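Question (not urgent): is this output format expected?
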Amino acid sequence: MNKSKAMPYLLIFFLLLLKVSAFRILIFDTKSVWHIAFVEFPVWALLLALVLLIFKKRIWLAAWIYSFLVSGIFFAVTLYSRYYTTIPSYYDLQQATQSSTVGTTILLLIHPTDFLFFLDVVLLALIARKWKEAPRAPKLKYAALGLAVVSAATTIYAIQQPIIDVSYFAKENGYAQSQLVQMYQQANETAHASSTSLSAKELEALKGNEYVPANNHDTFGLARGRHLFMIQVESMQNFVVGRSLNGQEITPNINALLEESAYFSNVFQQIGAGTTSDAEWITNTGLYTEGMVPIVNKLNGSPVPSLAQTLKGHGYGSATYHADDIEFWNRDVLYPVLGFDEIFSNEQIPEIKQVGYGPADEVLMDFALGELPRQLDAYERIYSNIVMMTSHTPFVLPEDMQYLDLPVEYEGTHVGHYLQSIRYADEQVGAFIKKLKEQGLFDESLIVIFGDHSGIHGSPLSYEDDVLLKDFLGHSYSMKERYTIPLLFTGGGLFDAVEMDRLGGQVDIMPTALALLGIEHEKPLMGHNLFQYEKNLLGMRYYLPGGSFIQSEQLYKAPGAKLPDMLLDIKTMEKRKKNSETKKHTRDVQKVLEYGDALLKPYIQD
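Got this back:
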């Protein structure tokens, strides 16, 4: 093939090389020529060569379509990683149907420079006008063969490596290879195939505690015979509790409620790709999620030992409330397997006062309160699971729902919108508690209030927002502020302003609530009673790189796609030097996660 005949093909592949290089630099913050030339590029180039060989009579059209699709993938990965600080996998294609619901959030993530991924698409169209029809390239098949050899070698090597963290794995082995390896593992059932078994005593030992049977806990049965209300507050992070802005409390109702609550101020989110639905799973089962896969996408329909199922054996009727489409995050599957007697979604909850993704929380809370008289007649005791939604990204509320008079510098900012939405959510929690008290139910109930996950993170935060957060907090926004959620246990006559800073996770919410109710769960739980145990060891997949752990004294973030590993003091968030304890906790948390995977196996699809 002479130079003139080769030129169109060289241009096509050169443009692809530039795009792949830009992708590697942007996503993995690496300029390694080796990884670009011999790991990442060959797979994408091989696919291009095959496309050109198959559609050799229409190579410009084929090259243009291929380039457009690759640009779309790189564009989507960029937005995803910008928001979640991890890269998506092919698993996340299962969430494609959810994108329309969070379209406004997606718009916040886009930078104008992101569209440069499509620059080669434009250039290809211009080049095609110069070469109306590119000459045939008989030697292209030999180039494809060479690319196939290199791609196969890197993929086979990647298959031999353990995937502890998908982002770091993709950085070392190539994004395309990381997807192929995950598909291979899924097909061969090697992912999450652990058969690890731990006794309750062994699990507590890994956390640093001496096991005590639940019925011997000091708080066991403190709220025996009471109704249970679980209130999951969308995007509520712990750093807003007790804070004020220009003399205005962000959470005045929760602050007042602390006077008659047990408040845990050091509880970490443990959700994965399923975000809010993962939080519902964890708090209603006491089990971990899979991390990369929203647990709701993996359920096989088998009934799960859950909070509702256990309470049913003690005379409780159960109901769950979420004012969104029941099929969003497959809640039409989730709620039945969790065993709820009554399920309420936007099909039953009035679609009035629409804000964001559905009816405002005040509509949701009033509806739940309206169901109580009938339920109190139908059941001996009731368990209500209420999932709030209005304080969801992008946090923009109409003026009549804004309770804060924001300083000028906060107006129109992401942080300002967030604080307004949390203040609104707090108002609805306060109104709900007030009505329970008016009806005499507060003294007969255990109420658990907690956040589902962080709201302030990712690309929507501008430099201006970072400055505002530092001013609001008095220090730089840290991983602790991002990942800790408030957790309150309250009810008439139960507590007097108890605050505990011992480490907890979302897996601990269900066992703590059951212990207070004086009820034992027959199946193993990953969490424990926070009132009883002082030490803890938590795993978090997806939002922290695989191999990370959160321990009572320290937080270890394993190396990820861009940043190296680091060990932090859990209280001050100052850096520490790694030591032998770091390796021990890393091994121990892996045992915890493998045990969690083993407990999941009966309830998820192969």
